[in-house]
Amino acid sequence: MSTSNLFIPRRINVGFQNRTGTYTGKLAYIIYFDEKGKLRKEASWENWRDKNIPNVEYDNEPLEGFVLNKKVGGYCNDWSNFRQAYVRVYDPRGFEFEITVPNLLYILEHTNCIKGKGLEGTFVYGWDGTDLVLVPSSSPDYEQLTKLNDTRFANKRICAKDLKIGATYLTKSGEQIVYLGKFDYYTSIYHFDGNFFETYGQMEKYADKNRKELIDPNQYDSMYGGKRRFYDFKVGTCSQRYFFSVLSDMSIKPIKSVPTALIDVVSENCVSDFAQRFDKLENNTMYSPYDESKDVKVYYDLETLEQRVKGSKWGVCVNAEWNGEDVQFGIRACDDGKVVCSKVNYNSKFEPCDLFQCDNRYSYKKMLPVELKEVFDKFKFFYTEQYLANGKYYGRA
């Protein structure tokens, strides 16, 4: 169970159903008001609760007197009768609710369960995404979470125009991030009729407006003939993003809307390692996409190829120029110093080529061993150095 994203609301709303197997005959579904006063998960809560039983609102303050009841759900020897295991807990205000097993384990790490008296200490309700979590105030996370939630409820508005390069900000999840700047954002998105769309809905709206029919390329029907208009996924950019570097590990974090993501300014001073963080951004495909046109072939010498083959127990796939085309060969070292070699087809299976014989079409095992130099002399083996559109090195293939 993650506690880094826990949200501890100031007020909760409790709905009920009559349910056997509980102390009081009532099982509760608890939802909460967020920092803007909006009641979250209200629709599912309304569908679940018995409206003949009045709901109750409470302040979410530390409270003692919680008692474990029993486990519900889990494997029942029938796949049609399976749901995640939960544990029912009694709230001293007269109802029961359910928590997950990871939540129970987290509780027992930080407090005691006393037979006949229940859980020791005080607790508050929190939410990890959509999951309710009972949080012991004795846990080391509680004080930090309380401070984070005080900041959330302060509703400090941070606007994009106020961002400073190199300054450090706090996100709603409690993460500290460094602002790098606003740039084009590249990702795999919908591509249709020469345009890029961030969502299917945007693409569909465009097609309707221009009276063009969308066809899923995975569901091609020959009846469309030459008039078909496929959509697909390609790397492109629809809009810009605000790019940040996570303070702890320098990972890159693009944000679309600053006011909804940031809740506080940690420091307006530029971090000392800003240049290193920006360099990592420049090497990220979200900032600059991979550019196939910048590929560079680097040809192996015999010694380098030999080291690579001998360094792999199961063999390697190596690119080679053969009969005017680029193909892949599988090469594996044998115990006697020789190698077995076969062409790799589009299904990643091994098949014989004109120059090497074997007794089994799709296996290294029956290939006839040859000297690596004999293989090396017949082909031009190479690897490809790949680069981003901005010229930064991307990787090797």
Strand content: 35-45%
The number of helical elements comes to: 8
How would you sum up the global shape? elongated
How many discrete domains? 4
Distance between the termini: 38 Å
Topology, number of strands: 26
Helical amount: 10-25%
Q: What is the rounded Rg?
A: 30 Å
Query: Quick check: average pLDDT?
Result: 82
The largest sheet, given as strand count, sense and whether it forms a barrel, is: 7 strands, antiparallel
Which secondary-structure class do the elements indicate?
A: alpha+beta
Q: Unreliable runs, pLDDT <50, ≥5 residues? A: 75-82, 221-227, 346-355, 357-365
Description:
The chain has 4 domains: 11-139, no CATH class; 160-184 and 239-282; 187-236, no CATH class; 296-396, no CATH class. The chain has 397 residues and is of the alpha+beta class. Mean pLDDT is 82; it is low at 75-82, 221-227, 346-355 and 357-365. The chain has helices at residues 42-48, 101-110, 140-153, 200-209, 258-261, 274-282, 302-310, 372-378; strands spanning 11-18, 26-32, 56-59, 63-64, 67-74, 83-91, 95-100, 113-114, 118-119, 122-128, 131-136, 168-171, 176-184, 187-192, 195-197, 232-236, 240-246, 252-255, 262-267, 296-299, 316-322, 325-333, 339-344, 350-351, 380-387, 393-396. The radius of gyration is 30 Å and the shape is elongated. The chain is built from 8 helices and 26 strands. The relative contact order is 0.09. The strands form 7 sheets. Strands 20, 21, 22, 23, 24, 25 and 26 form a 7-stranded antiparallel beta sheet that branches.
